[in-house]
Structures
1.
Amino acid sequence: MSLILSSLYIHPVKGCRGTSPVRALAQARGFVDDRRWMIVDGGGRFVSQRSHPALALVGVATGPEALVLDAPGRPLLSIPLAGNGGPQRAAAARDVTIWGDTVAAVDAGDFAAAWLGDVLGADVRLVHMPDATHRAVDPRYGAPGDEVSFADGYPYLVATTASLADLNARLVRPVPMDRFRPNLVIDGGAPFAEDGWRRLRIGEVTFRLVKPCVRCKVTTVDQATGLLDGPEPLRTLAGFHTWQGGAAFGMNAIAEGEGVVRAGDAVEVLSG
């Protein structure tokens, strides 16, 4: 059965709502603009939907001149951008922590912090990863030089509609693909065939699929309401599809080189 890239997603601010462009430029650390921004607490540690599910309601738009955030009942937040997509008027650089990594970031300033603090009811800051910051992927699954933005661990997440359909057939209430926040969604093939894929060609880019993605309670957040939605789909997934003891859905991936991918591109399995 032929495979097609049905859609692609970019999440400019980690944890916030994503966008679905028809084309995107793939680079080493992820799609351009993907998870180059992150929200941190007062100690500089990353904040996500795990602790603040309302982040799902924060919409993000990117452009050459500004990053714009919106949230229900709030005025738009517009952050003027300078070089490499970072804030134009920023506070001093600061170290931030995501999982076990501590990296240098650029703070977006007090106004952005106050806006997000009002939305989340917490003491938070918005930071940007500049081009000069390099965060390596887990060396157990990557090669020297492989890097990632503020995504959890890898630059890309590949998911398939066949696997989602298989999961939904086991659920009382089906869930949409946005529960899993992928970058590349593929139509065609058998459910969970991606577990055995090792290299894919999509558009101008070859991707290495390096490990299954073990899922967390973010999958239980309704992305339309920003509310926890009970134990599903995590509970059902944990009952039939796991990796190293954790519920797994999708494959973490790394791009080999740079290029454009487009919705509708043919997907070729180069090795599996």
2.
Amino acid sequence: MNRYKPHICVVFEDDKCRQLAHGFVLNHRIDDRRMQVMPPAGGWSNVLEIFRKEYVPYLHRFPEGYVVLVIDFDGRVIDRQQEFAKAIPEKLKPRVFVIGLKDDPETFKRQIGLNLNFEQIGMQLADECLDATFNIRQHEQCDHNKPEFDRCWQSTKDFLVRGTMF
């Protein structure tokens, strides 16, 4: 990944979230050279701490970079959204996105009722973004992400989708 070109670093709470994002990156229409999937942080509070310590300076140094923070909201969507919003410097807010499931990946997988693994669900999520469809993305475990998904997609699709830029 070239840090001097538009790119995304994705920081995860746990391995199941990482698998979802890895599936997104595996979609053949996504330019995997523009997206770096980081190791799991080991909890939502660790994602927040890593963001503060590592990615705030990183984003100041690399103005073409974006960061997606993927957490489980554990039923506390508003509280966690507010906590992360406070931690993101105003100047960086257009390049930082916080998304996650209302509860956790296991609950989500069980509720959608599809016989897919987490990577396959991530690939389907990528298709939904690329095709502007809303099956999984409007599920009750994901619906609170719509403004953040839309903001992220509008900011990154021109370099993230193969064949659209550069």
3.
Amino acid sequence: MTRDSTAPPKAAQPAGEKHDAILEAALRLFVTRGYYGTAVPEVAREAKVAAGTIYHHFKNKEALVNALFRKWKLAVAERIYTDFPADAEPREQFRLIWNTMVDFAFEHPEAFAFIELHHHASYLDEESRAVDNSLKQFGVLFVERAQKLGGFKRMPPMLLMELIFGAFAGMFRAHWEGRIALTPALTNAAQEACWDAIREPA
């Protein structure tokens, strides 16, 4: 079959745009169908590119999911690190981290759901695990400093961090599933409740 000579030629999509389109399509599908429920040809259809095009940008589906994971984990890290007041009191630091994460989760709900509410352990590569561990270690150091200043309860720092983040992630899961409707007042109240849960009573 020959192309209709009267039809305008289809504009070539720049390589950078194709790369971004593939990542965006993969994000939508991984969130709704999961990693194992998503096939590469489905990502190609969603991104409106040829299936072979994906392999020009990513070696395989595992490379694609790792690139996507790192992209959004690093986006979260950049937000937190950029404005983090290293010399502030733990209470102010906690408030900033919480509010930064709230803003990110509302602005990028699919990305937050993907990186924080999905189980990735089986396919994350060394580089992705390093990015994830770096962000967790930042949280541990924050807790350890607060403990030294007498601000947080004397429990393992990783445990305290996971307790808070588990509450945070559960709050947004309930919001997206329609069980609660988050408002600025509610997210702030939740922040206060979580602070009270981990701080050392005066």
